[in-house]
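Limitations
The structure tokens in this dataset are predictions for the assembled complex, not deposited experimental models. Users should treat interface geometry with appropriate caution, especially where small molecules or nucleic acid strands are included. An illustrative entry is reproduced here so readers can see what is and is not provided.
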Amino acid sequence: MLSIKNLKANIEDKEILKGLNLEINPGEVHAIMGPNGSGKSTLASVLAGREEYNVTEGEVIFKGENILEMAPEDRARKGIFLAFQYPIEIPGVSNANFMKTAVNEVRKSKGLAPLDSKEFLKLMREKMQLVQVDKTMTQRSVNEGFSGGEKKRNEIFQMAMLEPELGVLDETDSGLDIDALRIVADGVNALRDGKRSFIVITHYQRLLDYIVPDFVHVLYKGRIVKSGTKELALELEEKGYDWIKEEVEI
Amino acid sequence: MNTLTETISETEQQISFENIASEKLTPERKLAIDTFNRSGFPSLKDEEWKYLDLSVLKNTPFNHQAPACTKLTLSDIEKYKVAGADAITLVFINGVYCPELSSQQRDNTFSIESAESEHAAHWFGKLAKTDEPFIALNTAFHHGGLLIHIKAGQEVKQTIHLLHFNDSRQEAVAAHPRNLVVAEKNSKVQLIATYHSLNNFTSLTNSVTEFFVGENAFVEYDVKQDENEKALQINYVYAQQKRDSVFDISTVTIGGKMVRNNLNIALTETGGTAHLNGLTVGGKNQTVDNHTLVDHASPHCESFQLYKNILDDNAHGIFNGKIFVRQDAQKTNAFQSSKNVLLSDVAVMNAKPQLEIYADDVKCSHGATTGQLDEEALFYFRSRGIGKKDALALLNYAFAGDVIEKINNDALKADLLKLLAQKLNTEIEFEG
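Predicted assembly:
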């Protein structure tokens, strides 16, 4: 489904990704861990098409197409969803209106008729339950005045609404207490249907107790330097990253 | 029919009456034209006009008394009405009130008559003085206009819609609408003014409206300026507020080549409240200038100003907001905010707040911000599958929305959101 080959990317002439390779099949959950500054969030941004990042080499093939030349909205319509590390507050646009516009834009790109208000409300009600989003949250402006946990729940809610084929979660667990983490993880797990894939970027092994990954990768200095299964995450939790750094430097 | 025509000598900008029947040429009109000719048009050297280039206006030979009411039919008017509004529509073409195109009153909570009547003389020109050149011009050339008089203790249930057309299809027309609104004690009324134009030639609409808001009266006046790219507009609104009265005005400017709004509010007695809101969405070759003056002349009054500009292409926005707090006006609350977004590198915004405070126990604040579009927010929208153009429109709508939210008329609100979507070039339906 997703094939990243030798991906190199700069921001402001500083090379962050230095030849990253990753293969993801339908239905798989890949966790990406790594010390600060290793390029985790850059990977998420490059996949979603953030324009500040400049891809200098490599390719990202999603469902048979190189997406690197695509606009962010086209990637989203094709089925890539980025859950932001820091969701943006947008005063003046209600969450519901935002989602209605987004859902219908995605539908339009697939040649589907837009949902009318009634159909949309039905869909929204169904998805709201997944991440315990209540009605007031959908009526409020996008993320405005939301707590950290509400913002992250809102990201997962949006993902549920848009039903992507690949969800990229950029440190969705950061700043969440254990209850909020559980809600978010339950939401993600409910979206695991054997076909949808996830890239879960995290700093903490804790999240992976709730969203159990098929693979764990360690990103260091812009490359994936070690891959394993969920046991690797536990090992990292216990021993930190120094042993990996040592392995790489040798 | 007698016509008023002007001759402008290029160097001196003298305007005179020609071919006008002597009985129409009242001493007031003669005096006004003399006053105008002494001052001439304002220039860029004039502090109050320093950002606004009036050269097109000065150099266009306008007809000040073009034919009016026969120019349009009822069906022409229909689409300019506010859909879904329960409104009485009063139609003005080239500044002339056209009763045959206007709707009938449903009740007698208010009365209308010529603003030149003996009864109207009690108010006419009491606020709008001819030392302002454009008011002098209006006073010289206006076409009678209306006095709308709301009786004491009455609430006008219908919205009163003043629908203004400038028809400059055959020639360059200067229209001078002149209206008075008197809201007596404990009355309540909501008025809308919309300005439209049909142009092959440059048009000028030079509108003057005076409001007299009685004790504990509530007046809301919402203005939609939707003229086209050959239209020039100068618009003066004066309001004098008595004790515990409320005057709310929202001015939404979407169309017009050049628009200058002058809003003057006088809080003359204790307990008055005024809200002044403005939204400008300016594009190619548009200049929109909002000048406000709130005169706090009495204690315990409040004024709130929120002005926003969205400027694309080479649009030019100007905001000059003056708050004057006199020595006696203790316990004044006066707030002003000017927020602006520039969508292109060549759009220009001049924002100038001015506070003059002579009382010592007051709360006043002002702020002006001008920024670019929030790229992060734009990316957020695009990452959800919303195209760049629509994302931009949604963000601009979000920015503009809180001004439109202040309007208490749902039909007008919906109408403005539709117009806003059109101007922002999106098919997304905005929610009210």
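Some entries come with short summary sentences. For this one: DSSP finds seven helices and 20 strands in chain B.
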